[in-house]
């Protein structure tokens, strides 16, 4: 259940007649599918890159043998934000020659430190050679790859899903309808030279809130009221019956098609709502 924050009822803000939406204000419409595609490709790339290495090391894990005559030509491990990334060059003899195999792997760790490691290979397959540290951290590495690929994939799906919702919303907004006023909780505001960006979560009672970013042009002013008691900032939004995403209203009510008298009446109602919020 979505918290209603005990705000006054804004139902009287807008007239009970079909109202056309002039400007929805939704930001990043075309950026969403682009970013979703990029994240999806990175997620897929993580799987394609990591799975073969994990499988090769899993084969060593099942039947490892220590390689005494192999040595490290180079080795380095770096700790960065709960992740240790290691690279090494392993020199080992085969058929009278010295071959070098490069290995690199990452695993999750809460702290940095020194790691002791040996050189191991798959029994019967001396070319499948790696570090014992990579084998010791095999399941940790599998979990890390799964988390990264899953998180990026989930973000890609959410962005594409929001793009679909936004397109469906824009289709619904084409026809005038009776708009229902609702409150929105402001979570982020970014000021730029030519526009303002405001992220809001519509408060829709039993319906789960959805974070939406609205872009305000220089000619528009977002209206917001601060509730000191709850340490939250709120705005007024309008819900179209055929649209999933509510739009955020501006200071002058220019985003919707109202007459001058209706704008004056809406401003009076909004002033009373603001007084009630600030008086709590």
Briefly summarize what is shown.
With 280 residues, this protein is an alpha+beta fold.
Q: What does this entry look like structurally?
A:
There is one protein chain. The mean pLDDT is 91. With 280 residues, the protein is α+β, with helices and mostly antiparallel strands. Strands 9, 10, 11, 12, 13 and 14 form a 6-stranded antiparallel beta sheet that branches. Strands 2-6-7 form a 3-stranded antiparallel beta sheet. Strands 3-4-5 form a 3-stranded antiparallel beta sheet. Strand 6 and strand 7 (125-131) form a beta hairpin. Helix 1 runs antiparallel to helix 3. The protein folds into 2 domains: 11-24 and 173-279, no CATH class; 38-148, no CATH class. It has 4 helices and 14 strands. It has helices spanning 31-62, 132-136, 138-172, 260-279; strands spanning 18-19, 64-66, 71-80, 83-94, 97-108, 119-122, 125-131, 177-178, 180-191, 195-202, 212-217, 225-227, 232-239, 247-248.
Any chance you could write out the topology, listing elements then pairs?
Elements: E1 18-19, H1 31-62, E2 64-66, E3 71-80, E4 83-94, E5 97-108, E6 119-122, E7 125-131, H2 132-136, H3 138-172, E8 177-178, E9 180-191, E10 195-202, E11 212-217, E12 225-227, E13 232-239, E14 247-248, H4 260-279
Antiparallel strand pairs: 1-8, 2-6, 3-4, 4-5, 6-7, 9-10, 9-13, 10-11, 12-13, 13-14
Keywords: Membrane, Transmembrane, Transmembrane helix
Protein name: DUF3592 domain-containing protein
Organism: Novosphingobium organovorum
Largest sheet: 6 strands, antiparallel
Q: What fraction, in percent, of the residue positions are helical?
A: 25-40%
Residues in β-strands, percent = 25-35%
Mean pLDDT: 91
Low-confidence segments, given as residue ranges, are none
Structural class: alpha+beta
- How are helices and strands ordered from N to C? EHEEEEEEHHEEEEEEEH
**How many E strands?**
14
């Amino acid at each position: 259940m979505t918290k209603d924050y005990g705000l006054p009822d804004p139902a009287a803000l807008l007239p009970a007649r079909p109202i056309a939406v002039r400007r929805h204000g939704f930001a990043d419409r075309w950026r969403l599918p682009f970013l979703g595609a990029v994240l999806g490709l990175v997620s897929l790339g993580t799987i394609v890159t990591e799975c073969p290495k994990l499988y090769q090391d899993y084969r060593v894990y099942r039947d490892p043998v220590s390689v005494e005559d192999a040595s490290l030509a180079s080795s380095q491990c770096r700790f960065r934000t709960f992740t240790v990334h290691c690279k090494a060059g392993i020199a080992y003899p085969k058929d009278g020659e010295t071959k070098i195999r490069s290995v690199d792997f990452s695993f999750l760790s809460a702290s940095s430190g020194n790691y002791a490691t040996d050189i191991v290979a798959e029994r019967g397959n001396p070319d499948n050679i790696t570090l014992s540290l990579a084998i010791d951290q095999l399941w940790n590495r599998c979990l890390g790859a799964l988390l990264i690929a899953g998180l990026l994939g989930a973000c890609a799906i959410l962005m594409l899903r929001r793009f679909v919702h936004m397109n469906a919303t824009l289709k619904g907004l084409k026809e005038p309808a009776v708009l229902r006023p609702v409150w929105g909780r402001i979570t982020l505001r970014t000021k730029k030279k030519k526009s303002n960006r405001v992220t809001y979560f519509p408060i829709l009672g039993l319906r789960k809130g959805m974070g939406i970013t609205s872009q305000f042009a220089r000619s528009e002013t977002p209206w917001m009221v601060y509730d000191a008691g709850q340490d939250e900032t709120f705005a007024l939004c309008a819900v179209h019956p055929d649209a999933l995403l509510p739009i955020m209203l501006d200071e002058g009510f220019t985003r919707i098609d109202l007459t001058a008298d209706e704008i004056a009446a809406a401003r009076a109602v909004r002033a009373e709502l603001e007084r009630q919020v600030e008086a709590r």
